[in-house]
UniProtKB/TrEMBL annotation:
The protein, known as: UPF0311 protein QY95_03133
UniProt similarity note: Belongs to the UPF0311 family.
Signal peptide residues on this chain, from the entry's feature table: none
Organism whose genome encodes this protein: Bacillus thermotolerans (Quasibacillus thermotolerans)
Domain of life: Bacteria
InterPro entries on file: UPF0311
Source species taxonomy: Bacteria, Bacillati, Bacillota, Bacilli, Bacillales
Length: 152
C-alpha cells in the first residue's frame, strides 16, 4: 500500500515576537501571535487573517509541540478555520537558534504537522472538512512557511 499526496497550498504566515510564559511544569510554554500572511495553491488562494496564534510547549526532551489556531480567507471570501498540530525537533544547536529567532538551514530539523480544517458546508472548499492533510514547516526569523498536502 502506498499513500499519495497532492499539493493543497503553500502559506507564508507572518508572526510577532514570542510571548514567553515560562516553565509550566510539562515544559516551556510560548505563544507566538499570528499577524497575517498569504497562501496559494492550485485551487485556492487568499490571506492569513490576524488574530491566531501558535501555542508551543517545549518539552524536557527538546521536542516542541505546536498547536496553532488561525483563520484563512480565500480570495472569493470564504473563511476557513485551521487547527494545526505537530512536532518540531532537531539538533540542540539548531533548535536553540530557532528559539532565539535566528535563521537556520532548511532541512536541518524536523517540522511536520497534521492540520484540521473547518469550513462552511456547501462552500467550494467544504471538501476540507473530510480530507486528511499533512504539512511541512520552515521557521524563519519573522515568518513560518507551511506547505500543505492533501492525502488522496
Amino acid at each position: 500500500m502506498s499513500i499519495e499526496t497532492e499539493l493543497l497550498f503553500k502559506a507564508n504566515i507572518q508572526v510577532a515576537a514570542p510571548i514567553e510564559v515560562g516553565n509550566a511544569g510539562a515544559g516551556i510554554r510560548r505563544v507566538i501571535p499570528i499577524t497575517g500572511g498569504t497562501f496559494e495553491g492550485p485551487g485556492m488562494k487568499g490571506e492569513i487573517l490576524t488574530g491566531g496564534a501558535d501555542y508551543q510547549l517545549i518539552r524536557p526532551d527538546g521536542v516542541t509541540e505546536v498547536v496553532a489556531h488561525y483563520t484563512i480567507q480565500t480570495d472569493d471570501g470564504v473563511p476557513i478555520y485551521i487547527t494545526n498540530k505537530g512536532y518540531r525537533h532537531g539538533p540542540k544547536e539548531v533548535i536553540d537558534k530557532i528559539i532565539r529567532g535566528e535563521a537556520v538551514p532548511e532541512g536541518s530539523y524536523y517540522f511536520k504537522t497534521a492540520p484540521v480544517f473547518e469550513v462552511e458546508s456547501g462552500s467550494t472548499y467544504d471538501f476540507l472538512n473530510r480530507t486528511i492533510v499533512i504539512g511541512h514547516g520552515v521557521r524563519n526569523p519573522s515568518d513560518v512557511e507551511m506547505t500543505f498536502y492533501q492525502v488522496l
